[in-house]
Amino acid sequence: MIHIAILASGSGSNAENIADYFSGSDDIQVSLIISNSRDAYVHERASKLGIPSCTFSREAFGEGTPVLKKLREYNTDFIVLAGFLLKVSQPLLDAYPGRIVNIHPALLPGYGGRGMYGDKVHRSVIDAGEKVSGITIHYVNEHYDEGNIIFQATCEVEASDTPDDLARKVHALEYAHFPRVIASLVKKIAEEIQQFENK
């Protein structure tokens, strides 16, 4: 069994979608949800899904040790950022090299970086007159939204679109593609673990 931990800061709709996708799997399980906000609605979703959730402060995420302890407690193999707004600290990057991924609601390398999330991204895309937007799934490194790109999907930006309109299109892409890409990545990790155990 490969155990996934999801890090989320807000509503957690992507976290719920991912957990639902793997709920019938015998090989992959969302075992833990972690947030940096005690009031984030993702905790309500986690409770309904029967998934343990917890909160750590910005300082705890930065220092890393308490978060790593919790991840290890749940035998975490892979970390998914789903609307997580803090930069991932070096201790977590070192502990999970190539095993932390994020989804961004635009086509990187454009419209990314510190402070670029949610409606801020969609408004920037519309204000720039872009005809296409979409999602980017990428590995996480020490810089906001600069890790190697794994997958992108696009949607049209209509002249009449508001940020809310574009957000709905982007969310649909997230729900359709993020769990599938995670499954593909986790399958590779499972194969690596199997090869290591067979040595």
CATH topology: Rossmann fold
Please give the largest β-sheet. 7 strands, mixed
- Mean pLDDT, to the nearest integer, reads 95
CATH top level is: Alpha Beta
* Widest sheet: strand ordering: 3-2-1-4-5-6-7
The number of helical segments is 7
What share of residues is helical? 40-55%
Low-confidence segments, given as residue ranges, are none
Indicate the radius of gyration in whole angstroms: 17 Å
Beginning-to-end CA distance, first to last residue = 19 Å
Descriptive overview:
- The chain has 199 residues and is α/β, with parallel strands linked by helices.
- It has seven helices and seven strands, in the order βαβαβααβαβαββα.
- Strands 3-2-1-4-5-6-7 form a seven-stranded mixed sheet, covered by helices on one side.
- Strand 2, helix 2 (42-49) and strand 3 (53-55) form a beta-alpha-beta unit.
- Helix 1 (13-22) runs parallel beside helix 2 (42-49), helix 1 (13-22) packs across helix 7 and helix 6 (119-127) crosses helix 7.
- The relative contact order is 0.15.
- The mean pLDDT is 95.
